[in-house]
Amino acid sequence: MSHKVPINDIKVLDRSRIDLGDIDQLKGSIERKGLINPICVRREDLRLIAGERRLIACKSLAWTEIDVKFYDELSDLELTELELEENVHKEMGWYEKSYLRVKIHNLKQELYGKATKGHASNSWSLDDTAKSLGVTSGTISQDFQIVKFAKINPAIKNITAKRQAIKLISRFREQAILTEISSRQLKVDSRMPYILINRLAEEALFDLDDEIVDLIITDPPYAIDIHKIADSRGFGGAKASYKDPTALEFEKLMSIVVEQCYRILKPDSHMYMFFGIQWYQWMLELLGKYFDVREVPLIWIKEGGGYTDFEFKFMPQHEYIFFCTKGVRRLNFECSDVFIYNRPLSTERIHTQQKPVKLLTQFIKISSAPNDMILDPFAGSGSTIEAATLNKRRSIGIESDPLIFTSMQDRLMGFSSASEKDENKDEEIESGGENVY
Fold first, then answer.
1. Using only C-alpha atoms, what is the Rg of the chain?
2. Would 165 be classed as within a structural domain?
3. Are residues 385 and 411 in the same domain?
4. Confidence at residue 121, expressed as pLDDT on a 0 to 100 scale
5. What gap in Å lies between CA 431 and CA 42, rounded to an integer?
6. 3-class SS at 39?
């Protein structure tokens, strides 16, 4: 129940809120629909507790009276409404603010009814929430997108800014459409350059048909029990986190992935799998259930030692790769089992474990032919996808981390644009009628 009191009797003391937002927009809404949500005051002295923006808007409309609710008459829902409205103007992180605005909107509709699109009513709408909080309707819509997306990918809460979160969600929507189109075309169109899938590998692999890829190159998490999280550059300079699974998580993950890789790989094909040496025996036995495995791993030698406690331990300068065969397949050319390639510069990496494209290119040239399909279940930075595209192969990349996935998309989009320019330049030279030496 609300009460009408003289508007000039409302006492406004010092308020914590300084930025009152767009009062004119709220004023227009109140003029059209009336004051749906009365202001809240103390009974004994009519001191304003909540609703300063509404009070100012009504005064500017030359109202002489205003609907109020006394604080001691508020229901539990109304008290919650009051608490939320007061909190939303305090200093807090961008996600907390988005979550709170969504909560306020839902509560308003519970109190005052849901507005029906296309029908005039005094029920509560998205616009009403925006106007009551002094933000745009677009802001509230974005808040709903973010909160809904966070239920699927909680990692979005860790992004530095709301703008970056919206960019990420937009990319996910685009990729969902492209992936659906690509997955359909995969069965009928052999010209698709690459397909990117943002899902857990142990889930996404089940959706791929039997024996559809010609080569697998992948760098799964090592699970070497180092208990550290390494940061890598994400899109727009943000940081993306990478963390190894526990030993039990790793065993469960790889048991699923290896079996599915065998199912998806065509007969007489190869697979290259990076691994931590601590897992040599376990991985050898697991892979040996399905593949013919070279017991002596291939070795990649880097330009320098990796990070470790260098005062007490040797710095590793190499990594190991299991070479697996399904059936029988010859190498395309003779090759040593030691590969010496520098890592990408730290300023160019979007993933801490990013592998050099030249190394992956060597594997691709040894074990596949143009237009073959290459799979990387742990795509990370997208280096395998880039190497495949450079060598006229098609590819499928699966990556679960939403931040790294978006960084991979940005990287590959830039790479694709540069490649197209190079191809166009080559075509111009070839069609110019002159010999170029």
1. 30
2. no
3. yes
4. 61
5. 84
6. strand
